């Protein structure tokens, strides 16, 4: 066995560990983004429901403008 084989094996182990770490980080980021997307979808649905429902802020004399 020459000296390059242990070096190559060590390099391969480091590379495998790096790939495993990067894969884990990407999975965590994917999960975080999926949760954020679900939160935003719920918020958008809530806002759409509010927009579609009659508002308690608007009266017939307001000409459709909201009070501040």
Question: Top keywords for this entry?
Answer:
68 residues, mainly alpha, 1 helix, 72% helix, rod-shaped
Structure description:
This protein is an all-alpha fold. The protein has a domain at 1-39. 72% of the residues lie in helices and 0% in strands. It contains 1 helix and no strands. It has one helix spanning 4-52. The termini are far apart. 0% of the residues are buried.
Question: What does the secondary structure layout of this molecule look like, with pairings?
Answer:
Layout (H helix, E strand, L loop, with lengths): L3 H49 L16
Q: Roughly what is the average pLDDT, rounded to an integer?
A: 87
Global shape: rod-shaped
Q: Report the total helices.
A: 1
Topology as H/E string?
Answer: H
> β content, as a range?
under 5%
Share of residues in helices: over 70%
> What is the CA-CA span between the terminal residues?
81 Å
Number of strands: 0
* Cα-based radius of gyration, to the nearest Å: 28 Å
- Find the structural class using helix and strand composition: mainly alpha
User: Could you give a short account of the major beta sheet?
Assistant: none
Query: Any low-confidence stretches, pLDDT <50, length ≥5?
Result: none
A few lines on this structure:
With 68 residues, the chain is mainly α. Helix content is 72%, strand content 0%.
């Amino acid at each position: 066995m020459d000296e390059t084989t242990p070096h190559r094996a060590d390099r391969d182990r480091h590379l495998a560990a790096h790939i495993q770490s990067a894969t884990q980080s990407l999975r965590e980021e994917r999960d975080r983004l999926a949760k954020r997307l679900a939160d935003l979808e719920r918020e958008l649905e809530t806002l759409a429901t509010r927009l579609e429902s009659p508002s308690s802020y608007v009266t017939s004399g307001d000409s459709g403008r909201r009070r501040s």
